[in-house]
């Protein structure tokens, strides 16, 4: 999901029917023939370790659930495939895709903003595709370690013996990531650099908004720099939501399922909350304390 470096969602994504309900990052799903209550949790991909918080309401629901599901697998193969999607192929780098002036601009920015020398940049960052580099910029700007919600939730579920599943293979996420054209990624990266102070302030606000469950505000900040790229939003969010939906229904049919997805997948006319509502399920926000 934002205009400057954190993604602005297109205005048509918000529907009046859901606006009044957008009050939580955790939802109960019932009705429409379900015999057990299931739960839908909207997570952030990562957050500063000092800002990290896992709501007790969420962990309590995981313990009550028969199964736990996240977007895609977290294992060695998944990490390898995701790394492939986020890095240039052998023989390519930012230097081969950017003009000399733009490449120098990026290198100088990393030196000024993060005190990363050109030699270190070229060793550690130059093979990252622009979208991945933009994400790295946000993480570096936090000035602290980060926590990954998927990993923390999966650890909790496994530790407590809750069966764990994924909604898709990591190859599917990689395919969606690659739908963001290289030129669009470059444009977004350079825009992020030009507006980085605003981006940092916006991400700080995201971390503040998240526990309160202000989904409309969160939605403004949680997408990667898209520059309102309709094709990427379609491929990365809408299509994946619609592919997940029958799997989610199957999981809920005979089980109490706890489903954790990126918070931006909850929102909009083709977001999971609205898809569930249109199918006849009852969505009840769970108040989350912080």
How would you briefly describe this protein structure?
The protein has helices spanning 16-19, 56-64, 76-86, 94-97, 100-114, 118-124, 130-142, 149-159, 170-177, 182-194, 196-212, 215-221, 230-254, 272-278, and strands spanning 26-30, 38-43, 47-48, 67-72, 146-147, 163-168, 257-262, 282-285. The protein is of the alpha/beta class and 290 residues long. 35% of the residues are buried.
Description:
- By secondary structure, the protein is an alpha/beta fold.
- It has one domain.
- Helices cover 52% and strands 13% of the residues.
- It contains 14 helices and 8 strands.
- It has helices at residues 16-19, 56-64, 76-86, 94-97, 100-114, 118-124, 130-142, 149-159, 170-177, 182-194, 196-212, 215-221, 230-254, 272-278, and strands at 26-30, 38-43, 47-48, 67-72, 146-147, 163-168, 257-262, 282-285.
- A 6-stranded mixed sheet has the order 6-4-7-2-1-8, sandwiched between helices. Strands 3-5 form a two-stranded antiparallel ribbon.
- The radius of gyration is 19 Å and the shape is elongated.
- The model is unreliable at 1-21 (pLDDT under 50).
Biggest sheet strand order reads 6-4-7-2-1-8
Mean pLDDT: 85
The helix fraction, in percent, is 40-55%
End-to-end CA span: 24 Å
Domain unit count: 1
CA-based gyration radius: 19 Å
Mass-distribution shape: elongated
How many strands appear in the DSSP assignment?
8
Biggest beta-sheet profile: 6 strands, mixed
Question: What structural class do helix, strand and pairing data support?
Answer: alpha/beta
Sequence stretches where pLDDT stays below 50 over 5 or more residues? 1-21
Helix and strand string, N-terminal first?
A: HEEEHEHHHHHEHEHHHHHEHE
Beta content comes to 5-15%
- Number of helical regions: 14
């Amino acid at each position: 999901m934002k205009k400057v470096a954190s993604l602005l969602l297109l205005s048509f994504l918000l529907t009046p029917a859901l606006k009044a309900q957008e009050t939580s990052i955790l939802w109960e799903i019932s009705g429409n023939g379900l015999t057990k209550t299931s739960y839908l949790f909207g997570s952030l991909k990562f957050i500063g370790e000092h800002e990290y918080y896992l709501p007790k309401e969420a962990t309590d629901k995981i313990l009550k659930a028969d199964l736990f599901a996240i977007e895609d697998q977290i294992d060695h193969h998944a990490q390898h495939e995701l790394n492939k999607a986020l890095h240039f192929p052998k023989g390519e780098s930012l230097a081969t895709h950017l003009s000399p002036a733009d490449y120098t601009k990026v290198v100088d920015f990393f030196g000024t903003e993060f005190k990363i020398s050109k030699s270190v940049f070229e060793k550690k960052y130059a093979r990252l595709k622009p979208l991945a580099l933009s994400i790295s910029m946000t993480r570096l700007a936090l000035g602290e370690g980060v926590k990954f919600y998927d990993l923390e939730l999966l650890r909790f579920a496994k530790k407590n013996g809750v069966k764990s599943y994924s909604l898709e293979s990591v190859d599917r996420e990689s395919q969606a990531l690659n739908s963001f054209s290289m030129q669009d990624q470059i444009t977004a990266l350079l825009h992020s650099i030009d507006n980085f102070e605003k981006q940092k302030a916006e991400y700080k606000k995201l971390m503040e908004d998240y526990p309160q469950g202000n989904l409309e505000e969160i939605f403004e900040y949680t997408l990667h720099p898209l520059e309102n790229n309709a094709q990427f939003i379609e491929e990365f969010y809408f299509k994946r939501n619609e592919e997940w939906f029958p799997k989610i229904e199957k999981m809920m049919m005979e089980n109490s399922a706890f489903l954790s997805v990126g918070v931006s997948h909850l929102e909009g006319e083709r977001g999971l909350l609205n898809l569930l509502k249109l199918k006849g399920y009852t969505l009840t926000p769970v108040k989350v304390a912080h």
